[in-house]
Amino acid sequence: MKRYIFITAVLGSITLMARGQALPGASYPKDFQIGGTYTYAFPDYTPQNSSGGGMYATLDFTKHYGAEIGYHQVDLSQHSPSYERTYEFGIRYHRNYGPLKPYFKAMGGRGVFNFPGPDHTVAANEAYSMAVGGFGVDIATLPHINIRLETEYQRWFSDIGLEHGLDPILYNAGIAYHFNTGWTK
């Protein structure tokens, strides 16, 4: 009788050890990148176009959805203290097509508008809430390097004396370090 109990216990433990744990079929590895951009802008305050720079980070937590934070500063004119600076955060929807990762994003944030007085010193530094819509593409060029091309439309909820408010359009070209090499599969 002891022999049958021993054999049953051994066989039972073998079947428990043979049972494996598989990953869920719907799991997706987290995808993270951080980078910088060159920004060419139509600032909507002056008739001249402006340029500047920025930084961004994305975290894709599902196969098609992720989050993004961003920062931009556009100098409105050379040798002037005028600028538009934005802090943005929001969601993005993306697809993968080999090395291409096109996306749309919807974001919110704060915009700081620093504009000069008549003697070219700072007249005001105003901060406003804003909504941002954008689209672009991240391109995997090397295992850990992505190139970004995007367009952003910003709607500042401001009353700075313009009839239509402040609605800058930004064109960004950037490069990012990508922390997960398996995201294009």
Explain this structure to me?
The protein has 185 residues and is mostly beta strands. It contains one helix and eight strands, in the order H-E-E-E-E-E-E-E-E. The chain has one helix at residues 2-18; strands at residues 31-42, 50-60, 65-75, 83-94, 100-116, 122-142, 145-156, 169-178. Strands 1-2-3-4-5-6-7-8 form an eight-stranded antiparallel beta barrel. The protein is elongated and about 100 Å long. The mean pLDDT is 82.
Which runs of at least 5 residues are low in confidence (pLDDT < 50)?
A: none
Largest β sheet strand count, sense and barrel closure: 8 strands, antiparallel, barrel
> How many distinct beta strands?
8
CATH architecture: Beta Barrel
CATH topology: Porin
Based on secondary structure, the structural category is mainly beta
Q: Numbering strands along the chain, what is their spatial order in the largest sheet?
A: 1-2-3-4-5-6-7-8
